[in-house]
Amino acid sequence: MSETAAPARGLPVVGRALFDGFVRRREASVLLVALGLMFYFRATSDVFLSRDNLVNIAQATAPTAIVAVGIVLLLVSGEIDLSVGIVAAFAPFLLHFAIDFYGVPVLLAFLLALALAAGIGLINGFIVTQLKVPSFVVTLGTFFAVQGLLLITSHAYPVPIPEAAKGTFQTWLGAGPWASITWAILIVAVFHIILTNTRWGLHTISVGGNPVGATEAGIRASRIKIGNFMITSTLGGLAGIMEAFRINTIDPNIGGGTTLTFAAISAAVIGGTALAGGSGTIIGALLGALVLAELQNGFNLIGYSANTIFLILGLAILVSMIANQYLSRLRRAGRS
Amino acid sequence: MSTAALEVRAVAKRFGALTALRDVTLHVDPGEVLGLIGDNGAGKSTLIKILCGFHRPDTGQILVNGDEVTLRSVDHARSLGIDAVYQDLALVNELSVYHNMFLNRELVRWPLLNNRKMRRRAEEHLRDMGVDLPDVRVEVAKLSGGQRQAIAVARSVYSDARVLLLDEPLAAMGAKEGAMILDLIRDLKERGRVSVIIIAHNYAQVLDVCDRVNLLQHGRIAFDKRAADTSLEELTDLVVAEYRRRRA
């Protein structure tokens, strides 16, 4: 058992090792799916890979991916957040209130909106960890509560982007064609490193993988979980503000407050994050968000109606999850 | 006579109407391996939970290196060098062996983990302890029960545990796996740095690896002999005779 693997000989061995390494990576299967979809839609529609359409795909991918980053952290630590979509709808209103009613400078208003979003995450995390209520129920509660707050304060009417935020700020934070995806990739990169290469990441995996063992080892599970709830809410707020800047209006009914949440959870799960906690990948979630955007965009180009696309999307999620399950079983069967 | 690494004097513990421990007095010397046997319900696990700081005894004293202590928590007991090792509770399956070895004591080069250093130290330490693993980068989930137990023990020793409490370390383990753990314990014994208290049901294994055997019956130590002075027959007879007496 102690003997080490035979030294690699020649190219075939290297190729084999690369292939093995690739297959063993959790992101491999979803990357293949994303590429496959790209080829399929390119074959059926000439404009799929045109610049304009790539911008569409990028802009559809970004908010889902950003929120999915937080969702992955939460799922890995054994929790979930159903309220993040409504936080995303609420955050641009906070920005609007601060700027238009209280004359707060734009950047400060932006940070304030994110801080308040983080506050909602803090409340979620506090109730989950200190009052021991399952996160599914807690965040369902905060979802409705925040929705109520949003509809009351906004009178359920959309408002324009505050004048002060227009121009560079709006362009850089969502309106520019590649702005949101650039932020998304940056955020993914940073949190990928955090999850895989920092103590915070290891402890996130630990509290989700073995709550008792992690606590025994002295890891403060509550702190990790509350932190991840706050990260998720903050990212939700950021995605919401960027989405408002992109569509150039602040809409309280955007996605019913659930679309973004469900898309982000789907992206995380399609990307290879387990709902059971303890394992997940942030790059996979980005790819998952890309797959979702490709499906929506591609079938749209082919000419299916929006209603049909939901059906296709649902089936696609189921199929990819079944495939993923199968692949991960193969991966586990592979020798260590 | 040298001071005991861990000593228990007249400890009693009740849970409501149930008396788990009546009057337990035992000790383990530095570098000694003590086998704790007894039927189910004799109070072995309660005793272990008191020693690792999880329960507080109602009466009695606990002495570490001759000094009386009150174990306030598992953390506190650990800071005094007393560590209970549970095979399944201790490790995070999703993490690599070396990340588990350094769980919550990770080496960092801020803000990142210092993986190379942790890997090297884990390799050294495991090799030093005679734990044989193909690769410390492997996820713990992929290892056998015996290997996991070995890693859990190795981690405790690495964190300067002076007294290891092993509750059924050989349960649900194959012959080869069991032998690996017994070798590990024997190895620890030879170095004489760590004292071990083992709860086990397999008396042959207990006699094989322990210096001394204590039998816990009805919340009392009913028997205390050096392993060399007793035999499998004697231990079996003791427990069976007790069972017969109770039935009669």
From TrEMBL, chain A:
It is found in: Cell membrane. It comes from the Bacteria. This is ABC transporter permease. Keywords: Cell membrane, Membrane, Transmembrane, Transmembrane helix. InterPro entries: ABC_transp_permease (IPR001851). It holds the Pfam family BPD_transp_2. The chain crosses the membrane at residues 28-45, 57-75, 82-99, 105-129, 136-157, 177-195, 262-292, 304-327. It comes from Paractinoplanes lichenicola. It is a multi-pass membrane protein.
Automatic annotation (TrEMBL), chain B:
Keywords: ATP-binding, Nucleotide-binding. It comes from the Bacteria. Pfam families: ABC_tran. One of its GO terms (molecular function) is ATP binding. The keyword ATP-binding applies. Gene3D superfamilies: P-loop containing nucleotide triphosphate hydrolases (3.40.50.300). The keyword Phosphoprotein does not apply. Residues 6-243 form the ABC transporter domain. PROSITE patterns: ABC_TRANSPORTER_1, ABC_TRANSPORTER_2. PANTHER family: CARBOHYDRATE TRANSPORT ATP-BINDING PROTEIN MG119-RELATED, SUGAR ABC TRANSPORTER ATP-BINDING PROTEIN. This is Sugar ABC transporter ATP-binding protein. It comes from Paractinoplanes lichenicola. The lineage of its organism: Bacteria, Bacillati, Actinomycetota, Actinomycetes, Micromonosporales.
